[in-house]
Design brief:
globular
């Protein structure tokens, strides 16, 4: 089994703190830096390896992202669980290049997040720009740490 940085519970706690700080600071400005894709990957990793205490911290981080961006509580968590149970096994079955899977998971999660956002708010160009910026930031973080 390949170990990476998401197997370390101290890093996951630091990710919780960084997510809370970045969402608190960026909620004041127009561009929200959510780190939602990276937190989603950490949540998937915790569920795969049955790190339930670490998954609790990641759930708190996802709840903070939801409440800070105006989503209904537990909507992103339900999207993450739905993706883990139904979508990710299909992606693993279809795509044979495992190095690309994390990037596709992030794209899928942000597409689902955009769908949730479109139900509660209207979609405009600033929202698309914010999602695109967050995808780029998460791709950079995945490239650096995973």
């Amino acid at each position: 089994m390949k170990k990476d940085i998401l197997d370390n519970p101290f890093f996951l706690f630091i990710l919780l703190i960084a997510t809370i700080i970045s969402n608190t600071v960026s909620s004041v400005y127009f561009m929200s830096i959510m780190l939602a894709g990276f937190v989603f990957l950490a949540y998937i990793k915790c569920l795969q390896n049955r790190y339930y205490y670490s998954a609790f911290f990641i759930t708190i981080a996802l709840l903070f992202i939801e409440l800070n961006n105006g989503f209904a509580p537990f909507s992103l968590i339900l999207l993450a669980i739905f993706s883990y149970v139904f979508i990710i096994p299909k992606i693993k079955q279809v795509i044979s290049f495992s190095g690309l899977n994390y990037f596709i998971y992030i794209l899928w999660f942000y597409a689902g997040m955009l769908a949730i956002w479109s139900v509660s708010n209207e979609v405009d160009i600033s929202l698309i720009g914010t999602i695109f910026l967050n995808i780029i930031i998460d791709f950079i973080l995945v490239g650096m740490f995973l």
